[in-house]
Amino acid sequence: MNSDWLFPFLFWSSCLQPYVDFGLKVVGIDLMSVPILYRFVQEIIKDQVANMYHWPKTLEVQILDPAKAFDRPVGLLHVKVIRALKLKKKDLLGASDPYVKIKLTDSKLPSKQTTVKMKNLNPEWNEDFNFTVKDPLTQVLKLHVIDWEQIGKHDKMGMNEVPLKDLTPDEPKLMTLALVKKKDTNDAQNDKSRGQLVVELTYKPFKEEELPKTFQQTKTLLVRAPDNTPDGGGMLVVIVHEAEDVEGKHHNNPYVRILFRGEKRKTKKIRKTRDPRWEEEFTFMLDEPPINDKIHLEVYSSSSRIGLRRPKESLGFIEINLSNVVNNKRINERYHLIDSKNGRIQIELQWRTKD
Predict the structure, then answer these.
(1) For residues 178 and 160, is the Cβ–Cβ distance under 8 A?
(2) Are strands 313-321 and 112-113 parallel, antiparallel or unpaired?
(3) Same domain, yes or no, for 187 and 225?
């Protein structure tokens, strides 16, 4: 090669930026269809990989771990809170009013809780709860026994924890847990007796062939509207799941009232709790999609005492524009309650049609 041609060739070769094409798929889904993610990964590829290529060939670059790309549930934990024994009273006058608060670590869902047993140091609940499990090797079930107070902060009576890795799959395990102040073996206060909590735990892993089905059901399954639904219309479904940190000045017996197009519906009243769970469903049959409508939901508390009754209290409210649910068919959100200090409520809305 003539030396007069060598320098121009090298200059052209060093300046030419090769075109690099790539894809990023996880369990069959093209994540490059997400614009923000596409631009981010594109810059990584250009900076670190593009300069390696001057002829067509391929290279697999693992940006995401496919096993962790979707946080899929792998099983179900069934918790039966049976009873507590020999609890130590927290109230100066009379016995305590205990309930159990249950939480699974590494879960975005709020805690669940039993009903309150009034003036009882040996309460029996026999109440069942289910939790979806994502990693049985690391997740831990936390159980707290708490003394309910009508006014002021609730008092902690004791707690304990159960790592899910200690459970044998598909085998119910009856456990009598010694209640401690905190899960710290070096804490001197754990030597003090605080009573016991009796629970039955069963971890049921999903079968391998059930995993995709279960995942798809939790993400996309929607029920069609009944055959008598008006043409061009549909069914609006309102599911009131639960609330947390709702608090009245005189009582805490919350229920939810729904107001939509002049119709009023309401849930059952849950006595003596700041964290009620209703799981109630209401339906409205409509002739047309409620694109321009709003729905009003308000949490109230009313007295449960016989005789002298205090008036009902509003614990907070929300208004939801329904255009979003019509366009997306389903929304399931947790909302901060207006006119409430810390209260939140979880509402699911569905727009069902015959199509």
Answers:
(1) yes
(2) unpaired
(3) no
Strands 196-205 and 140-147: unpaired
Residue 299: strand, helix, or coil: strand
Q: What is the pLDDT of residues 28-58, one digit of tens each?
A: 555 555 555 556 666 666 655 555 555 555 5
Which residues face 30 on adjacent strands?
Answer: 25
Contact between 200 and 173 under an 8 Å Cβ cutoff? The reply is yes
For 48, other C-beta atoms within 10 Å of its C-beta total: 10
Contact 84, 197 (CB under 8 A): yes
Residue 188: pLDDT band (50, 70, 90) is: low
Q: In the structure encoding, which two tokens stand for residue 2, read together?
A: 């003539």
137 and 217 fall within a common domain: no
φ, ψ dihedrals at 81, nearest 5°: -85, 110
Residue 199 lies in a domain: yes
What pLDDT was estimated at residue 160? 95
Please give the pLDDT value at position 220: 42
As a whole-number percent, the residues of the chain with pLDDT over 70 amount to: 69
CATH, residue 119 = 2.60.40.150
Q: How confident is residue 66, by pLDDT bands cut at 50, 70 and 90?
A: very low
Q: How confident is the model at residue 11 (pLDDT cuts 50, 70, 90)?
A: very low
**Are 141 and 258 in a shared domain?**
no
Q: Rounded distance, CA 174 to CA 197, Å?
A: 11
With b for 16 or more beta-carbon neighbours within 10 A and e for fewer, the 277-316 pattern comes to bbebebebebeebbeebebebbbbbbbeeeeeeeebbebb
Count of the separate structural domains present in the chain: 3
The CA-based diameter of the chain, rounded to the nearest angstrom, is 109
Residue 149 lies in a domain: yes
pLDDT, mean of residues 85-111: 83
**The pair of three-digit structure tokens given for residue 195, joined into one six-digit string:** 């009573």
Calpha distance 147→145 (Å, rounded): 7
Specify if 1 maps to a domain. Answer: no
Collapsing DSSP to helix, strand or coil, 133 comes out as strand
**Same domain for 59 and 107?**
no
